[in-house]
Specification:
The protein is α+β, with helices and mostly antiparallel strands. The protein is built from 6 helices and 5 strands. Helix 2 crosses helix 4 and helix 3 crosses helix 4. The longest helix is centred in the N-terminal third of the chain and has 14 residues. The N and C termini lie far apart (44 Å).
Length: 147
């Protein structure tokens, strides 16, 4: 499944006009296989252990290209002011803990149906969407409400 996503994403990246470099392939594959919504620094730290030629600037430039190609989205952590990144080849929403910053993917409704309904109701040409649901994760609920 991840390999199919990778090949589809590479095709999308090529269509966007971005140059396909080994570093971009490495970062794209990392994001497709990651479910942790890493920051640029986390991506750099994880990948730099295997490839010392990878720079933090390359990570940022690649993330910018992947966002432009609509393959990756930026999730702002309002608490820490950090940016987290997520492969968005399969549209989904995010559930974010307001206390600890945990980000979880949500897949329990048809994202594309929601976009079609929004377009039909508003007569907008909907080009993209990002949905965030905020609350407290189970661990933070326990910490807050057991005091």
């Amino acid at each position: 499944m991840a390999e199919d996503n990778f090949e589809t994403a590479l095709t999308c990246l090529k269509k966007s006009g971005a140059k396909i470099t080994q570093q971009r392939k490495t970062i794209l594959k990392y994001l497709i296989n990651s479910h942790t919504h890493p920051t640029a620094r986390q991506i750099y730290n994880d990948l730099n252990q295997k490839d010392r030629s990878l720079s933090l600037a390359t990570v940022y430039n690649t993330l910018e290209a992947l966002i432009k190609a609509k393959l990756v989205i930026n999730i702002d952590d309002k608490k820490s002011n950090e940016h987290h990144f997520d492969y968005f080849g399969t549209p989904h929403y995010h559930i974010i803990c307001d206390r600890c910053g945990l980000i979880v993917d949500g897949h329990n409704f048809e994202f594309q149906d929601l976009l079609r309904q929004a377009a039909a109701e508003s007569n907008f040409l909907v080009r993209e969407a990002q949905i965030e649901v905020h609350g407290l994760c189970p661990n933070c609920q326990q910490a807050v409400y057991q005091k």
